[in-house]
Amino acid sequence: MIVPPWLWIPLTLFAAAAQTVRNTAQRRLIDDIGTLGATFVRFLYGMPLLTLWLLGLLALPAFQAPQITWTFAGWVLIAALSQMVATALLLRAMAARSFAIGLVYSKSEVIQVALFSVVFLGEHLSLVTALAIVVATLGAVLLSPRGRNMSSGWADPAALFGLAAGTGFAISVVGYRGANLALGAPPFLAAAETLFWSQLLQALLLGSWLLLRTPSVVLGALRQWRLSMFAGGAGAAASLANVTALALEPASHVRTLILIEVLFTYAVSMRVFREAISRRELAGILLVVLGVGAIVATSG
Questions:
Q1: b/e map of 174-211 (b: 16 or more CB within 10 Å)?
Q2: Residue 147 backbone zone (phi > 0: left; psi -120 to 50: alpha; other: beta)
Q3: Per the domain annotation, does 78 fall within a domain?
Q4: Mean pLDDT of 115-130
């Protein structure tokens, strides 16, 4: 199966849009079922879509079930656990301050992904890529809510939770990329296998924990099934697109381009609250666009 080398770009853009929808839905669930409940919803209600996608691919003559190795299992375990922790930390950051603040601080992930990819995956990081990552990340920081003093905000709960979430997401991204490479299957099948097993593990672990400690949260997630299905479906779609992109392109490129999610989030906020764009915010938008544009222009 021949896959166009540029396919990672629309996949990443779709993942960014779907993540914005998922984060918004999960944030609404926090008030009813808490942070862990909103995290559990993403994993549990995303499984039907992931299962159907994997079975659909395996039913095609072009694909055969790949051999599962211990290396693949190790990467999946790293990706699953770190993503589960990072998702909970991101939701805590959003609850501690605001939706946008939590998201902005978590975008420190992009720089960490680049460093971890070099150390653990041996990926090459060019000077242009490094500069693009820094520029785009700075742009995301400038897009924090107006009136927010970033220089004095690094020690507040939202910042600390957001930064910790960024580290967790960075580790999970490297884990997903490593699992895709270890499986040695075509990109779409590798991503489907990787995501199916990782999210199944996440749903079982977190679901078992909640049933033992706070079964009311699980019951609440079942009662909120309409919004939960929406959040889980959007999350699964975002994850499929994102992990498939990671099977096609180095992690540092994918995670820099996905910073466009910050612009999507900001556009939603402006649309709802009809706020004007300040000079600082305009500068942030331009830096994000410049950074992701450089990544796209220099990618394979």
A1: bbbbbbbbbbebbbbbbbbbbbbbbbbbbbeebbeebe
A2: left
A3: yes
A4: 85
